[in-house]
Amino acid sequence: MERQELKRELDATLEARRELGSEYESALVESFVEKVDTQVRRRLAEERLGAARGGGGADRVSAATGAGAVPGSGTFGERFGFAIVTLVLAVPLSAIGAAQARLSGLVVVWAGIVAVNLIHARSPRGRAKGVDAA
């Protein structure tokens, strides 16, 4: 829809140039460029807002404009945050496991941490959007 609006604006600018003559050409071109700039700034703001909300808005804007979606938008932060949380929780869990069952308890705790992170990384929520399972 934005593309059609810009096409109409361009047609109107060209028609005005034909009617007014070349002495108004620079003002007409400047006006049209300003409208294009406004559209681009608005689209970028929508994409940034969508990315800040978790990627849903950026995908919607990209689909509406015909542009390709940014691979993995919004999922890196989720994966990184999950990894940080599991590492923070690993400290007290390691202490408890080592205190209760020595080395075997520590191994069990870290095997669980690695397993949880692997499961999260392979789950559809943990992967980048549009990536098929291998």
Arithmetic mean pLDDT: 76
Q: Low-confidence parts, pLDDT < 50 over ≥5 residues? A: 57-74, 130-134
State the helicity in percent bands.
Answer: over 70%
Radius of gyration: 27 Å
Per DSSP, what share of the residues sits in E-state strands of 2 or more residues?
A: under 5%
Task: Give the helices and strands as they follow along the chain.
Answer: HHHH
Number of strands: 0
Output the structural class. mainly alpha
Report the biggest beta sheet as strand number plus sense, adding barrel if it closes: none
* Global geometry: rod-shaped
What is the count of DSSP helices, taking H or I runs of 4+ residues?
4
End-to-end CA span: 38 Å
Could you explain the architecture of this structure?
- Helix 1 runs antiparallel to helix 2 and helix 2 (25-52) runs antiparallel to helix 3 (56-65).
- The protein has helices spanning 2-20, 25-52, 56-65, 75-122.
- With 134 residues, the protein is mainly α.
